[in-house]
């Protein structure tokens, strides 16, 4: 079978997955030990891949992991419904069991789509909940009810969790969630998302609903030694030769961003013959920027001139002191109050993130595109 050599832009597993050894151990220990976890990283660093891998490792007769993406949820009721339907469907072995449980624990069921008799793959169903408080709290209690009934422990993994920050009445709902969750004895939650700044807003100070609710894991980049093993194995497998120095150049070019390392490798792979040359890498870098241009245009088309100049400054490597007179003058950023507002708006758009008070572009290739 001819497999793809490098995979990017979607969760990876098996031979396409490298490292994450420490994070896997810690997450697995949390899942087994009943410790809820927040997992944060910029886009496409490998959160979903990591969670899915650990899911596969820890599942047993007495521990079941459920996965739900709440990216599309716009309100507490949609969130509660997504959670309840994921738990009901992913813990049921047959459609009948799913229906029975939905009826028994929600008091009603009003299914929006036809169910396939095969429950092996999870599916999305509308439970037809109403928007009142009882329905929401019933739905939020489904994980605990099911876990007790089946005499198992449950881990519920919630992708794009920062979405709840967007709901109207968000703060009230966050408090409600925390109250319900902290009384559940048999359920552990793992919340992850790529909007670091929005995720942090859920737990960063004592007033926040999820303050000290669980362990916090900041995903790091995968180090060079793992990439070297991975990338040379892939090239060698196809009869091509790439040097360690070239691998390092590839990783450095995209700041060790997991998905871009794999994407850039793919273009190097395509443009090279049996021995990779430095021109092959030059061409691949151009191709990487070209391939992403439409995306960056759409991200930036509605930005103000101030926002663009702020991004350009960060792309030029100015990670701190952005409101100093010198930087404001050089990049025409207006006033220091303006810089604060612009930074906040770009954080909200997830175009930049902060770490130790320094500002970074969420997307390293966007920086290359901006500098051109
Ligand atoms: N452990 C890994 N080993 C090798 N490549 C990886 C690994 N984790 C992630 N990648 C690369 O990053 C890409 C994105 O991975 P994944 O979808 O898991 O990230 P994510 O953080 O969940 O992304 P998003 O922010 O879009 O939800 C993968 O397609 C792959 O190219
Ligand atoms: Mg993901």
Could you describe the 3D structure shown?
By secondary structure, this protein is of the alpha/beta class. The chain has three domains: 20-218, Rossmann fold, CATH 3.40.50; 224-298, Orthogonal Bundle (Helicase, Ruva Protein, domain 3), CATH 1.10.8; 302-371, Winged helix-like DNA-binding domain superfamily/Winged helix DNA-binding domain (Arc Repressor Mutant, subunit A, Orthogonal Bundle). Helices cover 51% and strands 10% of the residues. It has 15 helices and seven strands. It has a five-stranded parallel β-sheet, with helices on both faces. Strand 3 (153-159), helix 6 (170-182) and strand 4 form a beta-alpha-beta unit. The two termini are 40 Å apart.
Please state the average pLDDT score. 90
- Low-confidence sequence ranges: 116-123
CATH C-level label of the largest domain: Alpha Beta
- The total tally of domains equals 3
Secondary-structure element order, N to C: HEHEHHHEHEHEHHHHHHHEEH
Ligands bound, unique: adenosine-5'-triphosphate, magnesium ion
Strand content: 5-15%
Q: If you consult CATH, what is the topology of the largest domain?
A: Rossmann fold
Q: What is the CATH superfamily label of the largest domain?
A: P-loop containing nucleotide triphosphate hydrolases
């Amino acid at each position: 079978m001819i497999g793809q050599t490098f995979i990017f832009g979607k969760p990876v597993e098996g031979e396409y997955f490298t490292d994450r050894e420490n994070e896997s151990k810690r997450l697995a220990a949390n899942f087994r030990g009943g410790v809820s976890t927040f997992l944060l990283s910029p886009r496409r660093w490998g959160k979903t891949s990591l969670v899915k891998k650990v899911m596969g490792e820890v599942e047993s007769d007495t521990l079941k992991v459920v996965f739900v993406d709440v990216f599309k949820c716009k309100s507490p009721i949609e969130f509660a419904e997504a959670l309840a339907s994921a738990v009901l469907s992913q813990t049921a072995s047959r459609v009948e069991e799913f229906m029975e449980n939905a009826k028994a624990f929600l008091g009603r069921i009003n299914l929006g789509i036809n169910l396939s008799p095969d429950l092996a793959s999870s599916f999305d169903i509308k439970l037809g909940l109403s928007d009142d408080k009882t329905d929401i709290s019933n739905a939020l209690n489904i994980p605990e009810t099911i876990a007790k009934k089946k005499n198992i422990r449950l881990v519920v993994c919630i992708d794009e969790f920062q979405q709840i920050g967007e709901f109207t009445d968000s703060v009230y709902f966050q408090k409600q969630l925390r109250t319900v969750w902290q009384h559940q004895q048999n359920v552990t939650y793992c919340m992850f998302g790529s909007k670091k700044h929005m995720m942090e807003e859920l737990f960063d100070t004592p007033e926040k609903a999820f303050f000290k609710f669980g362990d916090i894991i900041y995903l790091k980049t995968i180090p060079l030694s793992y990439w070297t093993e991975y990338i040379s194995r892939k090239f060698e497998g196809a009869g091509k030769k790439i040097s360690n120095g070239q691998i390092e150049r590839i990783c450095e070019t995209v700041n060790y961003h997991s998905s871009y390392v794999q994407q850039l490798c793919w273009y190097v792979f395509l443009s090279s013959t049996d021995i990779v040359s430095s021109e092959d890498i030059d061409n691949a870098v151009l191709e990487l920027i070209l391939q992403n241009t439409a995306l960056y245009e759409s991200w930036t088309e509605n930005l103000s001139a101030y926002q663009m100049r702020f991004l350009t400054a960060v792309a030029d490597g100015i990670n701190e002191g952005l409101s100093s007179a010198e930087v404001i003058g050089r990049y025409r950023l207006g006033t220091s109050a303006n810089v604060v507002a612009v930074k906040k708006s770009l954080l909200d758009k997830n175009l930049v993130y902060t770490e130790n008070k320094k500002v970074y572009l969420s997307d390293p290739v966007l920086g290359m595109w901006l500098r051109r």
